[in-house]
Write a structure and sequence with these properties.
Blueprint (H helix, E strand, L loop, with lengths): L1 H22 L6 H23 L8 H4 L3 H32 L13 H4 L1 H23 L26
Helix pairs in contact: 1-2, 2-6, 4-6
C-alpha cells in the first residue's frame, strides 16, 4: 500500500510540475516520462495490492451465497482462475519486457522495457497473494464476516448528522 501511495504522490507532483513548467514557458520534457512511469507502476502495484485485500479480481456474489464444501470449491476455483490470470501477466509481461529493449523513450533514451517491467512484477505479486489466500482459506475457511458497523456510521432517522443540517 505504501508503494501505491508513493506512485500516486509521484504522479500528482509530476503532473503539477509539468503544468507549472509549461505555464511559465520552460517545460521540462522529462516530466512526462516520470509521470507516465508513476502512473503505470501505480496501476500495476495497485492491482496486486487490491488482490491481496480481495478488492480486485474477486467474485463474491456466488461464493458468499454458499456454505461448506460448495463454498470451498467455488472459492478455490475463483482463486485458481485469478492464478491463471497472474501466470498470463507474468508470461506475456516478460515477453513484452524483453522486446521492450528495442524501443526507447524520448527524450531520455530509456528503454521502454522499464515500463513493461511492471507487468510481470504485478503478475508475481498477484500469484503470491492468491496462493496466500488459498492456503489461508484451506486452513481457516474462506468465510470473511463483515465487521459490525461502528456507532459513528449509524445515523437515526430524523437525527441530523454531526455538524450538518437535517
Amino acid at each position: 500500500m505504501v508503494l501505491c501511495g508513493v506512485a500516486l504522490i509521484g504522479f500528482c507532483i509530476g503532473t503539477l510540475l509539468d503544468i507549472l513548467t509549461r505555464t511559465i514557458g520552460h517545460p521540462w520534457l522529462w516530466l512526462q516520462e516520470v509521470t507516465s512511469t508513476f502512473f503505470i507502476y501505480g496501476i500495476f502495484i495497485g492491482a496486486a495490492a487490491a488482490t491481496r485485500r480481495n478488492d480486485h479480481l474477486y467474485l463474491t456474489a456466488l461464493s458468499e451465497a454458499l456454505e461448506g464444501n460448495a463454498r470451498l470449491a467455488v472459492e478455490t476455483l475463483i482463486r485458481l482462475i485469478v492464478l491463471a490470470v497472474a501466470a498470463a501477466l507474468v508470461w506475456y509481461g516478460y515477453i513484452n519486457f524483453t522486446r521492450g529493449f528495442g524501443s526507447f523513450r524520448l527524450p531520455s533514451g530509456t528503454p521502454i522495457a522499464s515500463l513493461y517491467a511492471a507487468i510481470p512484477v504485478c503478475g508475481l505479486f498477484v500469484a503470491l497473494f492468491t496462493i496466500e489466500q488459498l492456503v489461508n482459506g484451506w486452513r481457516n475457511g474462506f468465510d470473511h464476516p463483515e465487521p459490525p458497523p461502528s456507532s459513528e456510521d449509524e445515523v437515526s432517522i430524523g437525527q441530523a448528522p454531526l455538524g450538518g443540517r437535517p
